[in-house]
Design goal:
By secondary structure, this protein is mainly α. Helix content is about 60%, strand content about 5%. α6 packs antiparallel against α7 and α7 crosses α12.
Length: about 450
Amino acid sequence: LGKGGEKGESGEPGAQLRFYTWEEIQQHNVRTDRWLVIERKVYNVTKWAKRHPGGQRVLGHYAGEDATDAFQAFHTNPTLVQKFLKPLLIGELAPGEPSQDRDKNSQLVEDFRTLRRTAEDMNLFRANPLFFFLYLGHILAMEVLAWFMVLYFGTGWITTLILAFILTTCQAQAGWLQHDFGHLSVFKKSSWNHITHKFIIGHLKGASANWWNHRHFQHHAKPNIFKKDPDVNMLHIFVLGDTQPVEYGKKKLKYLPYNHQHEYFFLIFPPLLIPVYFQIQIIMTMIRHKFWAVSETFPRPLWDGFYYMRFFTMYIPFYGVLGSLLLLTFVRFLESHWFVWVTQMNHIPMEIDCEKHRDWLSSQLAATCNIEQSLFNDWFTGHLNFQIEHHLFPTMPRHNFWKVKPLVKSLCAKYGVQYEEKPLGKAFIDIVGSLKKSGDLWLDAYLHK
């Protein structure tokens, strides 16, 4: 069997392949030494991690583990990606080693992979271009309508409020649309998805595609896992789940009065996430990773900042510089509320904890829930009411989630995996309820443990 540090772990082409045990593989799970397993093949991804399009953290989250299902979930063309994997191959699992690490249910894992192959045979990973063309069309139509409305009716208070709500709707819907292309779920060619993603998130949203990729793929890889999912990194402002509040309470950590977090949530999270926190993150990420640098084909500052140039060009003639800036801030404020309630209703009320090394199906179902389907819910949430199906199959076009849903529910029932679905209103209420529960756990631990 191969031993760590011996010849063959460099991933160099032509290096001698060896057999490894899970015990050996699990030792290579630090930033300077990362191995992972895909379909029983062992890869050293230490050097490749910095070049990984989805960011190095995603690979790090699976270091020392079986990453087969995550690999299949994120890549639309695994055969093409194999050419990048081949130089990283250092060996394979020893014949006596199970395909799954940490005593995972091998039959459940195999049944899920069978389900995925069934979905592929049903062409559920094939997008309907007309759906996304019309979706983009209705966003652009609202943008045009908003501008002509100001041109015709002027800048009165009523007109401005209506304008703000229309622009907010455009921003929210563009956010759901860029999400589709970011997950490579529209075009067969990844390059087309990447280009369209940059256009929509840059030109229609004023954000960075690179920042979104590096953040969002971590969330999908390890949802609701502390130190791995950035969406549950609350910067000591909130405590989430059942474990973190007790830990904070025992350590007498009180950055804020967490027993009131379900109340100050309304003052901090929905109104400030997009206008403040995300904007700071985007700028810091662009500087840290040099996304501001001029690319081979287009200056990134112009690509990512085109939205702002277009917005101010359109509205400064009507509102002036200060008025246009206030209008944009108000739109971001409204959009932030929409975004927070929709994105958090699927995750905050679910299990939030440290890494438990579950299989792909179980880990995604523990962290996500669905919202009942309706035409409004589909549109309002960008089909994120099918959060379970989206997390299991991130590259599946959203208009096919309802088709795979019965298969997922059947598999969950077979293995006793909880499949949670609720009305939209209850999902919103559960966000506040879960924050209150966590806050009460913190207070009890803070006072009595």
